[in-house]
Design brief:
Helix content is 51%, strand content 11%. It is an alpha/beta fold. The chain has two domains: 14-157, Rossmann fold (3-Layer(aba) Sandwich); 162-349, Dehydroquinate synthase-like - alpha domain (Dehydroquinate synthase-like, alpha domain), CATH 1.20.1090.10. The strands form two sheets. A six-stranded parallel beta sheet has the order 1-8-5-4-2-3, with helices on both faces. Strands 6-7 form a two-stranded antiparallel sheet. Strand 2 (36-39), helix 2 (45-55) and strand 3 (59-63) form a beta-alpha-beta unit. The longest helix is centred in the middle third of the chain and has 23 residues, at 187-209. It starts with 13 loop residues before the first strand and ends in a 5-residue tail after the last helix. The structure holds nicotinamide-adenine-dinucleotide. Belongs to the iron-containing alcohol dehydrogenase family. Keywords: NAD, Oxidoreductase.
Length: 354
C-alpha cells in the first residue's frame, strides 16, 4: 500500500540522564521564570522539598497535594495557592498525578509547567488534561498544558517500588501498543513506539530484580519517554477506553488496570493489526504472539493479571462492556458487546489472552 499520512510534531524539550535534576534551575531560568510552585503527591513531599531547595529563590513553595485523576477540589485549591503566592510557573515532580495537577493550573492560569517525572505514566509528553468531579473524569487537549520542558532523571525513580515500576511500565507499553495500530499512526511515531516497547520490556525485569540498578532505570525511563510521546501523537483505542471505563466506573487503580487489560485488548486486536503485531514481535525479541508475551511478562514481573485481584466483581462485566461500546471510536477490529464481554471475562479471571 502507498504511504499516506499527516505528521504534526509537538514542541518537546527533554533533558535526560542521571543527575539531570541538577540542571532544573537552568531550565527554570531559560523559561524566564523566577517564582515557581513545586507540585508533588503527599507521599513524595521529601522529593518536592529537595527540588524546591535546589531551586533556591526561584521557588515560592511546595504544594504536596496531588491526587490520582485530579479531583476538581484539589485543582481549585492549587490554582488559588498559585495565585496567592504569585507563582509564574509550576514544577511538577512525580507521576501522572503531579503532572496532572500542573496541567490543571496551566489550563486556568496559563502558567508554564516543567515536569520532572518519577513514574513511567507519560503524561509529561502530552497536551491532554484530566479533571474528576463527582466520579466523572473529563479530559481534553490543550497545547497550553503541554510541559515546556521535561527533566528525566533516573535517580529519582530509584525509590519507585517494584510493583509500581512493573505496572507503570506496562501502562507505558500500552501507549506504544495502541499507537502502533492507531488510525493516525505515522512512520516516525511507530518507530518510537517499537523502540519504547523494546526498551521497557527489556528493562522492567531488571528493574524489578534490583530497583537500584541505575542503568536499568535509565533504560526504562527512556522507554517511558518514547511511549509518552506516542500517546501524545496518536488516537488511543479499545484498550484505553476499557481502562477509562474500569477506572471511572469502578475506581480501579490506574497502572495495575492497564497491566491486566493490555494483553487481552491486544489479543482481541491482533488478528486485525498485522503491522503492529510485526513491530511488537520485533520489540519483544522475535516472539510469535505479542499479546501472550505481554501476559507472560506481567507474570514474570509479579504484576497482577486479573481484574478480580484488583477488586472487580464478576457481575460488573456487562456494565463495563456496555460503557466501552457506548460511543464509537476507531479500533482495528470492530468492537462488539459480545467481544468485549468475552475479553473482560478472561481478564477478570486472569486467563491468558486468546
Ligand atoms: P501517580 O502519579 O498517582 O503515582 C502513584 C504513586 O506513586 C503516588 O503515591 C506517588 O507518590 C508514588 N510515586 C511516584 N513516583 C515515585 C517514586 N519515584 N518513588 C516512590 N513513590 C513514587 O500515578 P501514575 O501512574 O504516575 O499516574 C496516573 C495518573 O496519571 C492517572 O490519573 C492517569 O489518568 C494520569 N495520566 C494522564 C496522562 C495524560 O496524558 N494526561 C497520561 C498518563 C497518565
Amino acid at each position: 500500500m502507498m504511504r499516506s499520512f499527516t505528521y504534526q510534531a509537538l514542541p518537546m524539550r527533554v533533558r535526560f540522564g542521571a543527575g539531570a535534576v541538577r540542571a532544573l534551575p537552568e531550565e527554570v531560568a531559560a523559561l524566564g521564570l523566577s517564582r515557581v510552585l513545586v507540585l508533588c503527591s503527599p507521599e513524595q513531599e521529601e522529593t518536592g522539598r529537595m527540588v524546591a531547595g535546589a531551586l533556591g529563590e526561584r521557588s515560592v513553595g511546595v504544594l504536596a497535594e496531588a491526587r490520582m485523576h485530579v479531583p476538581v477540589e484539589v485543582a481549585g485549591h492549587a490554582r488559588d495557592v498559585a495565585r496567592e503566592l504569585g507563582a509564574d510557573g509550576c514544577v511538577a515532580v512525580g507521576g501522572g498525578s503531579a503532572v496532572g495537577l500542573g496541567k490543571a493550573i496551566a489550563l486556568e492560569h496559563g502558567l508554564p509547567v516543567i515536569a520532572v517525572p518519577t513514574t513511567y505514566a507519560g503524561s509529561e509528553m502530552t497536551p491532554v488534561w484530566g479533571l474528576t468531579e463527582g466520579g466523572e473524569k473529563r479530559t481534553g487537549r490543550d497545547v497550553r498544558v503541554l510541559p515546556r520542558s521535561v527533566v528525566y532523571d533516573p535517580e529519582l525513580t530509584l525509590t519507585l517500588p517494584a510493583g509500581l515500576s512493573a505496572t507503570s511500565g506496562m501502562n507505558a507499553i500500552a501507549h506504544a501498543v495502541e499507537g502502533l495500530y492507531a488510525p493516525d499512526a505515522t512512520p516516525i511515531v511507530s518507530l518510537m513506539a517499537e523502540e519504547g516497547a523494546r526498551a521497557l520490556a527489556g528493562a522492567l525485569p531488571r528493574v524489578v530484580a534490583d530497583g537500584t540498578d541505575l542503568d536499568a532505570r535509565a533504560e526504562a525511563q527512556y522507554g517511558a519517554w518514547l511511549c509518552g510521546a506516542v500517546l501524545a501523537a496518536t488516537t488511543m483505542s479499545l484498550h484505553h477506553k476499557l481502562c477509562h471505563a474500569l477506572g471511572g466506573t469502578l475506581d480501579l487503580p490506574h497502572a495495575p488496570t492497564h497491566t491486566v487489560v493490555l494483553p487481552h485488548a491486544l489479543g482481541f486486536n491482533q488478528p486485525a493489526a498485522p503491522t503492529a503485531v510485526a513491530a511488537l514481535s520485533r520489540a519483544l525479541g522475535g516472539v510469535a504472539d505479542p499479546a501472550r508475551e505481554l501476559w507472560a511478562l506481567a507474570g514474570r514481573l509479579g504484576a497482577p493479571r486479573s481484574l478480580r485481584e484488583l477488586g472487580m466483581a464478576r457481575d460488573d462485566v456487562p456494565r463495563i462492556a456496555a460503557a466501552a461500546v457506548a460511543s464509537p471510536y476507531a479500533n482495528p477490529r470492530p468492537v462488539t458487546r459480545e467481544g468485549v464481554e468475552a475479553l473482560l471475562e478472561a481478564a477478570w479471571a486472569g486467563e491468558p489472552p486468546p
